[in-house]
Design brief:
Organism: Tropicimonas sediminicola
Radius of gyration: 39 Å
Strand order of the largest sheet: 5-1-2-9-8
Oligomer: single chain
Strand content: 5-15%
Structural class: alpha+beta
Protein name: Tetratricopeptide repeat-containing protein
CATH class of one domain: Mainly Beta
Shape: elongated
Number of helices: 32
Number of strands: 9
Keywords: Signal
Helix content: 40-55%
Length: about 750
């Protein structure tokens, strides 16, 4: 019995590691920090800790295994020297001696990003000591959904009893204070919560010891991604914690033109940028702590005037039940910082409006063909009046839209204005020149800068990689490193527009490199999240076309037998199906070819009938092949019909078809098989014609005058027969040697 239990225990011990979740580890190097991305299969939570040798991340479970085999392929060891997982403690250990700081945040569903930055001032190690003992809340979350900026501490609080109505708080007696706050800890917590709420509203400025002030916090290091590259974020810190907008939300696309001030960003803010937000946030609640619609709308416009679309959207979602009288605000916020799931309402409803509204209509239009009659002079005039920060932020999008709509002169005018306000090597300008191709010389120069931009600028890395990926696919030359880096960036930007484009490019890139297993896996990921009805099917057709072009028949057969509905051959384009069938017929696999062609039954096109006839011919159904191509005069159809006629024994007709199609050797062969001397004489080559001439000659004529007894054997007749026999043997030998 003891031995049995020991054996069971050993088996359980050996089986437990096999049940561990395999966590994928990606990495990427940026200008001032190194990033590690952990992709979990199910939800996980963690606690951060600074250790003597670096950093530690302790998870709430330990049934995981990490693949660190390629973590240092794309990052150096200057910030992170080593990384390992302690299964007993359930902690991820990172060795670092650079005096760096660590930021950990959600980068997508079950995806955790770790940034190790070299900026020593970004270290906020003192913050946990200040908030110890308080209920844990997600980082960057305040009591009514408005994000907390910098290092302010937002908390959900009630209104603690600090005094009776009508009495000053500082007039409490010692007995009343003791009765209301039985212990010092409760009073400390209440005070911290009050300070946190005041700080989140901008009423006070919390200064932490040995740390940066609130207004000095580097926004690019805030959780949720890079402030200066909001378009790269699939899910900002605001989207993580706020519920989706309810159907009854009043923040829908505009349906009427309003006053000019409603659309002119120059009139949205009068206070300096450094205290405009705090002033606006301090006014959103009235004396009874009820939201004031005018003040909320002013706060939203203040955020938008600074280019903070995600923050404006967070306020709109929190106060969605209030009629702000400005239904276009949500659409503008989505334009500045696209959400993970774009809304259906668009700013194109403003296209009939003049003034600054026309600028927003052009920026929000998703179908450039609708802007054919756009008043470009009005759009340019008002756009140049926008604040400089918004011109730099929205200018590239406006240039692309105008260029796609055919307004090349207007697009170049806006692009030149950006060139005067930005450096020539600015990432936004490089990406703009690389995508619009307004000027061929500028485009070539921008394309040459993409590799440097890809590795040196964190904000533009995803778009630069996407452009390099597209260029490699277009030119047929793709480096594996580009695809690997695109995988890491796709995980960081999952769900965003650029993230979806990267998934499509990665799938096609793996196919070009011959890794069709990975290609189909990434295609499935893209198909599951894509909102494009035709995009996944078009990409699938390109992947399968690569299988045909590279003649990877094993990969092609595995795909056809896969049975995955997302990758069903039914989704392939017609031309791709024909290419697949043609390749299968080239290697003699006529049954799979017939199965592929069956999905196109009833097509009626010539290529479909030719491929079907070829499949029938290989399947020994010559009559069906003849029926499929009856009366078709083109050479390719004639060759197939001739082979079918030959298979049915009609060699004479086959020889006629082959001769008319220009296949003289084939016509001679069929003529010989027919046994008809006239056909052999007409279509045969020199050996066939000589043999026919010899075999049909009169022996008596060659022998001269014979005696009346034709059966008599004379010397001359014997010599003639021997000569003819030798000549026929020579012709037969020549004929067989050529065949």
């Amino acid at each position: 019995m003891t031995i049995r239990w020991a054996a069971i225990a050993i088996c359980l011990g050996l089986a437990s590691p096999a049940m561990a979740e395999n966590v994928r580890v990606l990495s990427g190097e940026h200008a001032d920090f190194s990033r590690i991305v952990l992709i979990f299969g199910k939800p996980v939570s963690w606690e951060e800790e600074n250790t003597n040798g670096g950093f530690s991340l302790r998870f709430d479970r330990s049934d995981m295994s990490f693949d660190f085999s390629r973590v240092f392929d794309l990052i150096p060891r200057d910030r992170i020297q080593a990384i390992s997982f302690d299964a007993e403690r359930g902690s991820l250990e990172m060795e670092s001696d650079c005096g760096c700081s660590m930021q950990v945040f959600w980068a997508g569903k079950n995806t955790v990003a770790i940034d190790i930055a070299t900026d020593p001032e970004a270290d906020i190690a003192a913050l946990p000591a200040l908030t110890s003992g308080l209920p844990m809340r997600p980082s960057g979350f305040s009591s009514f959904g408005v994000p907390v900026l910098g290092f302010s501490i937002g908390r959900d609080i009630g209104s603690p009893p600090v005094g009776r109505p009508g009495r000053a708080a500082n007039s409490l007696t010692e007995q009343e204070l003791d009765a209301g706050t039985r212990n010092h800890k409760a009073m400390e917590e209440a005070l911290l919560r009050q300070l946190g709420r005041a700080a989140s509203q901008g009423l006070v400025d919390v200064r932490l010891p040995d740390g940066r002030a609130d207004d000095e916090a580097p926004t690019s290091r805030l959780p949720g991604g890079f402030r200066q590259a909001g378009h790269l974020n699939s899910e900002t810190v605001f989207d993580q914690f706020l519920p989706p907008a309810e159907p009854g939300s009043r923040s829908h696309a505009p349906d009427a033109c309003g006053e000019e001030a409603l659309y002119d960003p120059a009139q949205w803010r009068t206070d300096p940028a450094d205290d405009a937000i705090s002033r606006a946030r301090g006014q959103i609640l009235d004396a009874r702590e009820n939201p004031d619609a005018t003040a909320v709308a002013h706060l939203v416009r203040t955020y938008l005037s600074l280019g903070f679309g995600a923050e404006a959207r967070a306020v709109l979602q929190e106060f969605h039940e209030i009629d702000l009288g400005a239904p276009y605000l949500r659409a503008i916020a989505d334009l500045m910082d696209p959400p993970a799931q774009p809304r259906s309402d668009q700013l194109s409803a403003l296209s009939r409006c003049g003034g600054p509204a026309a600028v927003w209509a052009a920026l929000g239009e998703t179908d450039p063909t609708q802007l054919a009659d756009l008043n470009t002079e009005d759009v340019q005039s008002w756009f140049f009046r926008f604040p400089p920060n918004l011109r730099r932020q929205l200018g590239p999008r406006l240039v692309k839209t105008l260029h796609a709509a055919g307004h090349v002169d207007a697009a170049e005018s806006v692009r030149n204005s950006l060139g005067r306000s930005l450096e020539k090597s600015a990432p936004d300008l490089v990406l703009l020149d690389a995508t619009t191709r307004i000027s061929p010389s500028r485009t070539e120069a921008a394309l040459a800068k993409l590799p440097d931009l890809q590795s040196s600028d964190a904000a533009a890395s995803a778009e630069a990689t996407n452009l390099l990926l597209k260029q490699g696919l277009r030119d047929g030359r793709l480096e594996p490193r580009t695809v690997t880096l695109a995988e890491a960036l796709a995980a960081e930007t999952a769900g965003s527009e650029i993230g979806l484009e990267l998934l499509s490019g990665i799938a096609q890139g793996h196919a070009m490199l011959g890794d069709f297993g990975s290609s189909l896996a990434f295609h499935r990921k893209w198909a599951e999240v894509s909102t494009d009805n035709n995009g996944p099917d078009q990409t699938l057709s390109r992947i399968v076309s690569e299988m045909v072009a590279q003649e990877d028949d094993s990969a092609l057969l595995r795909y056809l037998e896969g049975g995955d509905p997302v990758r069903d051959p039914e989704r392939l384009s017609k031309e791709t199906r024909f290419d697949v069938a043609e390749r299968l017929l080239e290697v003699g696999l006529w049954r799979p070819a017939q199965a592929v062609l069956a999905r196109q039954r009833g097509d009626g096109s010539l290529r479909y009938r030719q491929l079907s006839a070829e499949a029938a011919l290989q399947g020994r159904d010559a009559k069906l092949a003849l029926a499929m191509l009856a009366g078709e005069p083109d050479p390719e159809s004639a060759l197939i019909r001739a082979r079918a006629l030959s298979a049915t024994g009609n060699h004479a007709e086959a020889s006629h078809l082959l001769f008319d199609a220009g296949d003289r050797p084939g016509a001679a062969r069929e003529a010989w098989l027919s046994g008809q001397a006239d056909l052999i004489g007409n279509y045969g080559g020199a050996p066939e014609q000589s043999l026919v001439a010899v075999s049909s000659a009169d022996p008596g004529a060659a022998a001269g005058s014979l005696t009346e007894d034709r059966e008599a054997i004379t010397l001359d007749k014997a010599r003639t027969l021997l000569g003819r026999s030798g000549e026929m043997r020579a012709h037969l030998s020549s004929l067989f040697s050529e065949r």
